[in-house]
Specification:
Layout (H helix, E strand, L loop, with lengths): L1 H19 L49 E8 L2 E8 L2 H9 L2 E8 L3 E5 L10 E5 L4 E5 L4 E5 L6 E10 L12 E7 L3
Antiparallel strand pairs: 1-2, 1-9, 2-8, 3-4, 3-9, 4-7, 5-8, 6-7, 6-8
Helix pairs in contact: 1-2
């Protein structure tokens, strides 16, 4: 159960980070205020259901380890609970290992909630570069940004797709910067 939650959290983090790094050249680290900061020092995260690990965070891994498993994640914002379906990939597995976790997320560009782990902090295995859907959760490796995309602006960017929030993502339109909790959902 913790592994599933960690996977879902990883996907959420990736999505937010992917969008957060866009259009910014410098930033202050927020990892000092969060529990998951220790991820930055991990050299070989434990893989869940995958015997092959890249051990690198270059974002250029080409090994395709498709797994049909999807993981349900509960995302809590204040009194609001959202549910997301995360894909099983290297990034989500790293995030799920950290769940439950609460991240101080920044509201950026009027379209995304963002938490920055640091450039290339998480392993990626299936980067894509195309448009996103409202509700997508992704990781943007260059900024190490986990992003929740809550509004559309038509932008395309390279990211590791983590998952998608089923409904209610519009809650972020009025929250501003806010603490967001990620945990594996009890099914």
């Amino acid at each position: 159960m913790k592994k599933i939650f960690a996977l879902l959290m990883a996907l959420t983090l990736i999505f937010v980070l992917a969008a957060c790094g866009q259009n910014e050249t410098s930033e202050e680290s927020t990892s000092e205020t969060t529990q998951p900061a220790e991820l930055e020092t991990q050299e070989e995260p434990e893989a869940i259901g995958d015997e092959q690990e890249t051990g690198t965070n270059t974002g250029n891994e080409t090994e395709d380890t498709e797994v049909s498993t999807e993981i349900r994640i509960k995302i809590t914002v204040g009194d609001t609970e959202l549910y997301a379906t995360f894909e099983d990939n290297a990034t989500t597995r790293e995030l799920i290992e950290q769940m439950p976790m609460t991240l101080p997320m920044m509201d950026l560009y009027g379209r995304e909630m963002c938490y920055r782990y640091g450039a290339y902090a998480l392993t990626t295995d299936d980067l894509q570069s195309d448009g996103y859907e409202v509700g997508d959760i992704a990781y943007w490796p260059p900024g190490g940004s986990l992003v929740i995309l809550y509004a559309q602006n038509g932008e395309h960017f390279e990211r590791q797709h983590l998952g998608h929030i089923d409904s209610g993502v519009e809650v972020f339109e009025t929250t501003g910067d806010v603490d967001v909790t990620f945990e594996v959902a009890d099914n």
